Amino acid sequence: MKFRYFRDPILDSIPDLGLAASPVTVQNRPEVLKRYLRAIVEAGILARENPQLAARYFLEGAGQRVTPETIAAEVKVLSALRADLAGADPMSRQIGAIPMKGIALYTQFFVDRGLTAQLVPAADIATNQFIAYANDFDRKAFIARVKQLR
Hints:
Blueprint: H1 23-28, H2 30-49, H3 51-61, H4 68-80, H5 100-112, H6 131-134, H7 139-148
């Protein structure tokens, strides 16, 4: 099976994924969320810096057979979706940040199409309050370490 991927520049300001937590969880379990988001940031960098290892980890986690062929297939997918992966700039301190402009576009779309009765402010839906923590680690050391792993 072959896939073709098309990108439209307008999508750059609209997040294509997000993590959800209730306000109660955000308030009562911030340390868990911080650690989880740090893992997401590190996983994004790993996928860019060592795609073969990321592919192997993905296959193992999904319970699939790990063979040179399945790793090669997953690396192709990672390569095709590279622009959508977190950590386009592995040295950025904003990996994982949700563009509020994109959330505002979503909510306006919902109102314009009659999916919601009123406009909901982006700040009522999304937060970037854990991004600083998620990005607070020694990137150079992390990148050097994941490049050495096989």
